[in-house]
Amino acid sequence: MRWLRPLAITALCATVAACSTSPTGRSQLLLLSDEELNNMGGQAFNKYQQDLPAAGQDSQRYVQCIADAIIAELPQEQQQLDWQIRVFEEDSPNAFALPGGYMGVHTGMLDIASTQDQLASVVAHEIGHVLAKHSNERASTESATQLGLSAISSAAGLQGGSGEQLMGVLGMGAQYGIMLPFSRRHESEADTIGLDLMARAGFDPRESVTLWQNMQQASSGGQPPAWMSTHPSQGQRIEGLEAGMSDAMTAYEQASNNGRTPNCPRP
Fold first, then answer.
1. For residue range 175-232, what is the model confidence (pLDDT) as tens digits?
2. Are 37 and 45 in contact (CB under 8 A)?
3. Which listed residue (36, 126, 137, 187) is catalytic?
């Protein structure tokens, strides 16, 4: 039945003014409005803050410094969002960004990302998901092919959609029991967008490769984190990043020449 998915999307694109293009030029089906997605993002972020304790101020300032430098390179529409950046006291190496300008980073990620440039790779990647409207695309595709268009309203909370539906549509982690993570295609696209963002912000894009080498070492001899189960392998991610490294280095050198040299003290 999987062959029905592209047919359904094609049919919807032919009848509904809901087709868009991602920052990498890929066609997308987007059925939810920005207002609906932003509201969903805010609800999910509030739930996350209720469930996990906040980290210390030093960690908060560190991540905020990195995020601010990257947000400054976003298109005007995304720059103007009231970005809320939070660091959570949680050992799992995870991070997320949600529609509406909400971002969370676990303290466990600070152990894997040992430099500001490596953490910038994580932050830029997660913002890349928001920039490419992956949550909207996933919700639209799932609804169109499995639940029908009526489920869009429910997933958006217009008919009392459950918290689990909300977190799943937005791609939140497996700690919520949600099995709708971003696809490999979305992850690879977010890597491409993130590599460009971090370089233009003045972070060394070569450190994105080091980050995934660190991730390989951290999961060596054991199971990878549950949230990575549908992600590209570390090796595939490194290959993809290296493929875009020449352009990223050009952007990085231009940023450095223009004085964009972030200095975010690590706690």
1. 332 234 677 888 999 999 999 999 999 999 999 999 999 988 887 654 455 445 455 6
2. no
3. 126
Q: Is 126 a catalytic residue?
A: yes
Helix or strand or coil: residue 95?
strand
Q: What is the pTM of this model?
A: 0.79
Q: Which residue has the tokens 């466990």?
A: 108
Q: pLDDT tens digit string along 72-92? A: 999 998 999 999 999 999 999
Question: Which residues are CB-neighbours of 148 under 8 A, at least 6 positions away?
Answer: none
Identify the DSSP state of 226: G
Q: Where are the domains of the chain?
A: 4-257
Provide the token pair at 166.
């909300």
Displacement of CA 150 from its chain's centroid (Å):
26
Task: Report yes or no: 128 and 189 within 8 Å, Cβ to Cβ.
Answer: yes
Compute the C-alpha angle 138/50/80, nearest 5°: 55
